[in-house]
Amino acid sequence: MAEVFQFYPRAEVDAKQNLADFICLARERLTAFSERGAWDSDRWKQGKTVAVFATKTAPLGTYSYTPMADPFKQFAKAYIRYTFSHRPVVSVMYSLHALRCLEAALLEVHGEADISHLSQVVLDVSAEKCREFFSNADVWHKTGLKIQHVCEFCIRHRLVPSFPQWQSPFKKPKILTESLDDGGGKHRSSKLPTHQAMLMVADLFSKADDVESRYFSSIMVLLMVAPNRVSEVLALPVDCIGWEEDDQGTSQMFLRWHAAKGKGAMKKWVVPAMQGVVEEAVGRLREIGEPARKAAKFAYDHPGRVMAETGQDVLPERSREVRLSPEEVCRIIAIKPKGNIRDKHGAPRWSCIGSQKWLSKLVISEEVTYGRLADFMAEIYCGSDWPYSDGQKTTLVWDMLCLHRENELHQRFQTKPFSWRLPTANEVNSRMKVRDRYSLFERFGLKEADGSPIGLTSHQLRHWLSTMSERAGMDDYTLAQWAGRARVSDNRHYDHRTPEEKLKTAQELLYGEKPSVLERFRGKAPVTYQELGVDRLGTAKATLYGMCTHDYAMAPCQKQMECMTCKEHVCVKGDHVTLDRIKLLEEQTQSLLDRAQLAHEDGIFGADRWVDNHKWKLAHVRAMRITLEHPEVADGSLARIPDEHDPSAVERTLRILGDELGPDREPVIEPKIFQALLGYEDA
User: Fold this and answer.
1) Shared-domain flag, residues 506 and 526
2) 76: number of Cβ within 10 Å
3) Which of 169, 354, 386, 437 could form a disulfide with 382 if both were Cys (CB 3.0 to 4.6 A apart)?
4) The whole model's pTM is what?
5) Are residues 37 and 137 in the same domain?
6) Which residue, 137, 204, 189, 197, is CA-closest to 168?
């Protein structure tokens, strides 16, 4: 884990010295993004988090960029490393957006990129640059907030001589899934695929007859099991299927899942209707990916060697220093040379191999050794996280379900037997939506009901399943758990029901039949005192074992949360969670009683009182458990201990006085005695 230090500015030095000290602390003492000499590099990586310190004033692409100008770049690196060390996040994209906007504004206003020149004018220009660089209102809002955070950070740590007060001008955009205007309707329709398209996914899975269609249709099926992301499907391990018995003893299927966006590892439950389809889809992916998993395992077990189609070393008798001919290289890496591989004199022509861009670094000085070829292949396929599939180091590469060999899914090129790879989300989407080539739906003649081509994205399946679940009445918490969302509030971004549907649902909740006490108790909904047999206004409070009817406005709890021996506590028959807790309490109380009896037998002073106390509690808990398990007691029945088993202090005193006076006389208590019983002194 990255070591964290807190930066404290010194008031006696100027802002320039504070800035230098801050950059020095981040460079010399913090360890986030510190792999491979990260400070001097303009591209950092920590797990899945990537930071590229590229300027937006020059063309910025995926593989080509221009670094930020100094000295601003040094501040940007220090800011990213410092903030990430104190609060690690999955993505620093919006922080980089903000820094790029500030750099562009500083260059335009002052002609140099120096954070010391931060001012009100620079911040206003950075907002204009944000509008210029990006076109999405949501990106404007989030980037504007990050610019504001950078400004506040500089002021708080006295990194700038002035103290500009600035607030982001970008308002939070409205949530289109909840908007009632035309824009909201268009947004919902664009996110939600048709029912016909979703049915065609099932048809495609059943008609798949080649490696490509079987592979990608299986991924689509796993996307339809539950509201999933394609990155989560591609991260599944080979042994992703598990089984577990439910409360009725029926074996239920789940997938060993790792949800994105902060949810983490979880069990993704599969509805019974989809279990057979899931087994078939996983079986197909296992079969297709088995050669790739063997290749990855071979590379780990035999470093510096190359695997052949047979699963053995391609040149078992040759050393790593032996030189290879162009013919051997082409045969090993399964490529076709461009042009004649030999000239008219029989000399090798390496240009027919080296001219290919990805092989240009292999041929050096007109020769290729077996060791250089093996190392070259390992550098291409192993990656920085080898032997794990990602920076989280949870799954080994040869345990990935969706692994396949290079060109395995290609119609023309030869499969490379020594290779392995995972597809990208774009590759999956390209098979689902018509772009520059026919989709799989087009190849099998599957179309919309009106004859138009089917166009889907992997995320549309997630939106469709979430909306269908909302329409079916699934509660928000269950839906969030099923979809792997860290926050329940995120459900609203996937709810594309029409306003009329939402209004109808609300009306059913307001005016529908009132749920039973048991249903409301399970759902943590309010239950009144009257429904629990207490003639008093108010709502009962839920406990670990049932409902408490005590009036806390009159007096605090007299039992100190010993609910199971309290006459003001009510248990509801039919809730297995509270019954399991009562059983656990019974076991614990029995254990305490056994220990107290042993102490009493050993003659320990005061142990006899603990024996009586535990017997008293165990009798109540066991009686309640037997009542709740009795087959003749209907679900929803209310159970409480009799009033006689829990008399108040006054009732116990009156009983004692009544026994002393005799059965035929009622006790008459003088006012002074009554005050003494209640703890008042005589005035």
Assistant:
1) no
2) 24
3) 386
4) 0.56
5) yes
6) 137
